[in-house]
Amino acid sequence: MTSTCLVEMGGRSAAAQTASATRHFSIPAQPLRNALRDYFQQSGVQVAYPTMIASDARSTAISGDMTPQEALSRLLSGTGLIYRSTGPNSVSLLKASSGITLGPVRVQGAVAHESPTGPGVGYVAENTMSGTKTDTPITEIPNSIYVVTKQQMQDQQVQNLAEALRYTPGIYAEGMGQQTNGAAAGFGGGTFIQRGFSSSQFIDGLISNSEVALDPSFIERVETINGPTSVMYGQAAPGGIINESLKRPTEAPLRNVTVGFGNWNRYEATFDVSDKITSSGNLKYRIAGIGVSQDTQTDYVRYHRVGVSPSFDWKIDDKTDLTLIGNYVYTPEDGAYSSYLPAVGTLFPGKYGRLSRHLFMGEPGWNNHKESGALFEYLFSHRFNSHLTFQQTFRYEESKTNFSYVYTKYGALDADGVTQPRVAFAVPNTTRTAALDSHLVGNYRTGEVRHTAIVGVDFWDYHSNGQYYRSDANSLNIYAPQYGNFTPHFGYPGMGSADATSWSWFGRDTYDQVGVYFQDQIRYKGLTVTLGGREDWFSQYSWSKSSFPYTGTSSTTTSPFSTKAFTWRAGATYELDFGLAPYFSYATSFQPQTGTDVEGHAFKPTQGKQFEAGLKYKPHGFDALFTASAFHIDQTNVLTSDPQNPGYSIQTGQMTSKGFEVSAQANVTRDLRILASYTYDDVRYSKSNDTTVPYYYDPTSVQDGYHMREGAAVPLKGKYADAVPRNMTSLFVNYALPKGKLRGLEFNFGTRYVGWTYANTANSFKVPAFILFDTGMRYDFGKAASFLKGLVGQLTISNLTNRYYVTSCGTAQCYIGQGRRVYGNLSYSW
């Protein structure tokens, strides 16, 4: 999206009106857009400008004590640009001639210093806090960072995190455990595979372990940081993390309500309102809410949710800011259904044909996922002077879940080809998480070299109190299911009698992590060198009790555990004058492991080590970001069998992931937006003493299961990781008709290709590749009639062709992908 502004001459500058205090400035001669970023950091005055008028301009050097207006005047000397007041602490740049209409400007407020946590502009975000915990242009960070902007989420009408990440390179969001049955079970759940490893999820830079997912109605943007991130965030898998930014009060008033509808009896209503509370605007609020009800593509599985997220921003003075955010959701039925279906009947031919997406392997009236979750967060910032800022973020989360379900038992179909054994579980659980991050950010110079240094400490405390009850259930005919014959046998009061297969587990877990970290971003002309290190101390205390009613036995275990780890990162980027920025980095990560070796020594954390090299290109005069990267990750200290001591493990295992990613995010014109990406990822067990047992599809065999045969154990070393596509590519285009009678009408179209994956660690059979198509349209009724201003209609269809596909498999069962989903929406803003 773009906007237009008119040149006005003779206006007094904002600096002269509101910022006459003398400050110390030290800004070298450089491209003007970089100089304006330094000016913002040292003065606090936002500068708005059309991209094209500053694309080729260079600033003069300034140094010394002066007022902000004097500093800006000197920066602009010789550029042919002037400035005028647009607000208490904001100015806009204009060409030094009258009567000129300026070209496109970025619409997030048209500020040169874009918010690093805001919605982004179109499909492009320029700055981020992720990866460095400082407000940094993405082109200066020496690793891959991709931003899913608010505009992208709106155009695609995403209903959960998996849908938001479908077009993001380096991450597989359709895999094992995802909500692929058409439920909109919030903004999380399941396992996301990032560069071959499971992702960790963060909210506003703090780790989140809540079992209740955020709703997309409360999210401003989503960022993926590919590669090791422990140096800033502590324990995390080497593949990277996902960071979600909560909505906060907006600068401009916001009033929006929507009603939605879709297949599977979906009905939804939302509201999102933000405005200032005081006339000066130093106190603002925002409140968003949602209510939704729908069935899913799986029979007897439903989704119902209500939620609200209020937030307040208090600008205490021109140096101090405090933001408070709350969030609460209640989900009596969360639509989750991750049960496998048999591989024979989905991936392979079944006795009576292919199994329906609608097949429910559970028990009506018994299967249910009920959950509620709440969080409170504050973000505090105080700028002592132009050189030093203190920032702190705190969040407390609490979730309660009560899951009861019957689903497919591990193993193949019975020999008759229609009977599938099942198992029953009941899992009530409560979790509490508190996280705090405090750090100082310093901006200073050593001669010609500029530094942005950060030193901080963060803390994470997690408590879980859960129960787990298990029992076998009656089998089900997958072609003619008959329900109602299930009786739970968990062996505790009120749940039936005990049997030989039932057992129960009670457990409490406490995790604590404290990390101290530092980082320095060193800039000299176009070169940025990023150096950082971190020391973490991690402790865990687990208590559990298992009971076996049939034998009358029980066991109790406790496992206190503590460890520490040092991680670091070094990287460099060099930004050329025309916008190309090559980069290189080395980074490490860690993940704690519990248990001991044969001598009783505690296991060390796994260690992730990555080399990454790439190119980022932010062309002048064209609102786009292009990224290409190549990476090599080794995860060491992986547990593997001890060949000298059967039943014990040693830490000589290793997994290796290597590949490359390319992506493009572009606002080509005010009417055309494009996303494109390609990912290649080769992930395998490069060192291991373990073996794995393969299952094979054999049309002549019924020995181990209908057409599934168990083979002899094979070495794990050299095998590819299962459920990780080696190739993925995607393209999404949104186009708005610029004029004519259909002005206000937009169309979009997307395609997603996911290459084949191995179904198991033995690599005995593959899950075929699949390609899916998405489409949609949007119409702004206000373009047709002024009295309809603010009314917008939208329709989105994912998996347009209703393709039947398998996302991933286990030993002899598979997950089915989401069928055609149709979602419509009417939105009104005023």
From TrEMBL:
One Gene Ontology cellular component: cell outer membrane
Matching InterPro entries: Beta-barrel_TonB, Beta-barrel_TonB_sf, Plug_dom, Plug_dom_sf, Secretin/TonB_short_N, TonB-dep_rcpt-like, TonB_sidphr_rcpt
CDD domains per record: ligand_gated_channel
Topology in membrane: Multi-pass membrane protein
Keywords linked to the UniProt accession: Cell outer membrane, Ion transport, Iron, Iron transport, Membrane, Receptor, Signal, TonB box, Transmembrane, Transmembrane beta strand, Transport
GO terms (BP aspect): siderophore transport
Gene Ontology MF: a single term: siderophore uptake transmembrane transporter activity
Secretin/TonB short N-terminal domain residues: 45-96
Gene3D superfamilies according to UniProt: 3.55.50.30, TonB-dependent receptor, beta-barrel domain (2.40.170.20), TonB-dependent receptor, plug domain (2.170.130.10)
Location in or out of the cell: Cell outer membrane
Family assignment from sequence similarity: Belongs to the TonB-dependent receptor family.
PANTHER family: FERRICHROME IRON RECEPTOR-RELATED (PTHR32552), FERRICHROME OUTER MEMBRANE TRANSPORTER_PHAGE RECEPTOR (PTHR32552:SF68)
Protein name: TonB-dependent siderophore receptor
Species of provenance: Acetobacter garciniae
